């Protein structure tokens, strides 16, 4: 555990809680991609199956349970509780174009050809692209609520902090996991355009809207 | 050879 990893995890947790609170307080999931949230629920489910087989630490187990619980709570709010406010027409990204290639890649390129390990690899690859339906939705509607941009910023920050964590672990522990690193870098790159808009618009008090 | 030891990150 190092400071980058801890702040990365906390940033991830903040993102998840910001999204839940936004939906709960406004009683609306307008502008939120239900498809991205389903993908994140799949990501956590397939990655954290080791909760049942391997104990790493109390911190590790607690965070996993919280992440999974929040992911399903978010999906429940979008598709059940506040379904009437879900903007399905704008959430038109074809997720099969992500899930199918990612599944194929996980079978082909992994650390170990075992059931659990292929699911872990699948979750790593899927997480790297799971935000695409959300970014697609924003590009389609041309705008995002400020609270949604805070959510996205925390989520992107978490990935960036994990990269610093891997640099740290490489130098001080000799540890590196190429699959996680490549997928993590890809994921962080996807946020770059958004980071630029966040810094130039949202932090200056403007709403995030894209030029037509 | 790659010795696989599991994953400790979230």
Automatic annotation (TrEMBL), chain A:
GO CC annotations, alphabetized: COPI-coated vesicle membrane; endoplasmic reticulum membrane; Golgi membrane
InterPro entries: ER_ret_rcpt
Transmembrane segments: 65-82, 94-113, 119-138, 150-168, 174-199
Single GO BP term: vesicle-mediated transport
Cell compartment(s), UniProt: Cytoplasmic vesicle, COPI-coated vesicle membrane; Endoplasmic reticulum membrane; Golgi apparatus membrane
Keywords: Cytoplasmic vesicle, Endoplasmic reticulum, ER-Golgi transport, Membrane, Protein transport, Receptor, Transmembrane, Transmembrane helix, Transport
Presence of keyword Membrane: yes
PROSITE patterns the UniProt entry points to: ER_LUMEN_RECEPTOR_1 (PS00951), ER_LUMEN_RECEPTOR_2 (PS00952)
Pfam families in UniProt: ER_lumen_recept
Molecular-function annotations in GO: ER retention sequence binding
Primary site of residence: membrane
Bilayer topology term: Multi-pass membrane protein
Assigned protein family: Belongs to the ERD2 family.
PANTHER family per the UniProt record, alphabetical: ER LUMEN PROTEIN RETAINING RECEPTOR
Descriptive protein name: ER lumen protein-retaining receptor
The organism of origin for this protein: Takifugu rubripes
Upper classification of the organism: Eukaryota, Metazoa, Chordata, Craniata, Vertebrata
